[in-house]
Amino acid sequence: MTPRNRLGTFSVSTNMRLTASDFASCHRPTSCDLRVFLRHQREQEAEPSAYEIVLRRLGLKHERDHLATLGTSVNVSAASLEEQVKKTADSIEAKVPVLYQPAFAATEQICGTEVEIVGVPDYLILDGDGYVIRDLKMARRIDEENHPEILLQVQLYGWLFERSCGTAPKGLQVHTGTGDVVTIRYDDGAAALRELERLLAIKQMTVEPYEPVGWSKCLGCGFIDRCWARAEKAGDVALVYCVDQNLARTLHSQGTRTRKELLASFDAASLSELKRPYGSREQRVGKAAERILKFADAMEKQQEIVLAAPAIPPHKNYVMFDLEGMPPHLDELDKIYLWGAEVFGENPSGFKVSLSGFGADGDREGWIGFLANAKQIFDTYGDIPWVHWAPYEETYLWRYAGRFGDVGGIASRVARNLLDLLTVTRESVVLPLPSFSLKVVEDYVGFERKEAEYGGAWAMATFIEATETSEEGKRKELMDKIVAYNKEDLEATWAVFRWLRGKVPSVNNAS
Ligand code: SF4
Fold first, then answer.
1. Is-contact 119 104, C-beta < 8 A?
2. pLDDT under 70 in the chain at which residues?
3. What is the pLDDT of residue 12?
4. Contact, 102 vs 77, CB < 8 A?
5. Ligand 1 center–CA 259 separation, angstroms
6. What is the pLDDT of residue 464?
């Protein structure tokens, strides 16, 4: 196998470069074409968060650990791309068993534009008379739904390899966060080239493409401040709670770009008939129409609407309940590292926290500690509501009962007493807010945090730091910060709870 793409035949004279990283730009942290456009325009982007920095560090460690298992390898990374491509070609010709950071580049005409296509997979591994391309990822699920960008990247590496060496790779592999090696069927680069064509068209746009903002879509994106400021200034229809991404796009394409235009152009009947893409088919807005218009109206008037008395069972005391956990792609399993609970009301309990340990049995220890705290609460207060925000707490309660058992039926008793305050809030009030995230609602009700840094992602990054340090003092300092953050979450939940409990529907809205 003699690589064709030797230095001298490889041209870097084209103005447009497309790389395998463009797929990640488009799909991470969430899918958004605008991010591709803005990066190409070199728009100012926020610095990576503490969470992203930790993820990158873990990714590099994962890469180094794996490299150590592959035996003798040649690191072909170099100061310039041209050098790296040449070193890669030379090493392939010399049949080096393992190449780390090989690089490929090719020029190609895409829709009349000459583009330079570049890809740097993690490894090339000699397998008989050919090479397997292997990329390392922290992700655990390598599929179209969870990580389309990974599939596209490795397909592009395969295509670049074939262009450079004149023969297809022997295989495409992804070494995942679980340590498994997933094989991807090579499609001759067809899907990757199709997507590159689409991304090229975005980069060549002269006018910014419309992308609806969305709370979960934009939260981890470096352009969030920029895009939200613009959306708010414009009164973008995408800011209306319950208007999903496809509906915002449909409305926008039909000329309904703002909340005002939405209210002027539609009543509940006409909006309910509007169809927007839904999976592979189309679906009417239906019953959600009335609610959407109420939210649009509330935002326009900056006035909340109370729909019904909040369904809160009367009790003298309530437990506020909140967990901090690691997502499954960052740990050996999805793990709750902090179980926080505190009784508020007439007879407060003080903050009760259970932390997972750092040893092999740490996960179970955290659970057992939580059950002990919960038992103490039941012993003191009997059956009282356990108030949480969103389904996360219930999901993990059952997951842990399945994982480590439910000693004395405590977890089942907690589950029987759960009260999801998010559901209660959504069913009783229409707020002039684009999101019902606890952080947004607590801010609306006037709750002020004392801790400067907060957020689930920040807490995860801090926990990872605590896991990695061997200094006891440093670890304690980090865990104390997370504990203080969780305590504030409970206080924020209580603040929202108290605010909501005082709501009474007006006569006009009661029907
Ligand atoms: S902030 Fe939102 S809309 Fe803007 S680029 Fe990021 S994901 Fe896209």
1. yes
2. 1-14, 327-333, 452-454, 506-511
3. 45
4. no
5. 19
6. 81
Atom of ligand 1 nearest to the CA of 214: 2
- As given in the structure block, the two tokens for residue 407 are 């000693």
Q: 227: CA distance to ligand 1 center in Å?
A: 6
Per-residue confidence (pLDDT) for residue 1, from 0 to 100 = 57
**What is the pTM for the complete model shown?**
0.86
Give the three-state DSSP class for 361: coil
393: nearest Cα among 408, 424, 414, 365 = 414
Residues 391 and 294: their CA atoms lie apart, in Å, by 25
CA distance 422 to 315: 19
CA 145 – ligand 1 centroid, Å: 19
Q: Which helix (H) or strand (E) holds 460?
A: helix 456-468
The pLDDT value recorded for residue 11 is: 42
Residue whose Cα lies nearest atom 4 of ligand 1: it is 227
**What is the per-residue pLDDT across 253-284, written as a single tens digit (0 to 9) for each?**
999 999 999 999 999 999 999 999 998 899 99
Task: Give the model's pLDDT for residue 57.
Answer: 83
Alpha carbon distance 120, 24 (integer Å):
13
> Residue ranges of the alpha helices (H) in 70-129?
81-93
The contacts of residue 292 (CB under 8 Å, 6+ apart) are 240, 241, 242, 243, 247, 262, 271, 285
Q: For the chain, give the number of residues.
A: 511
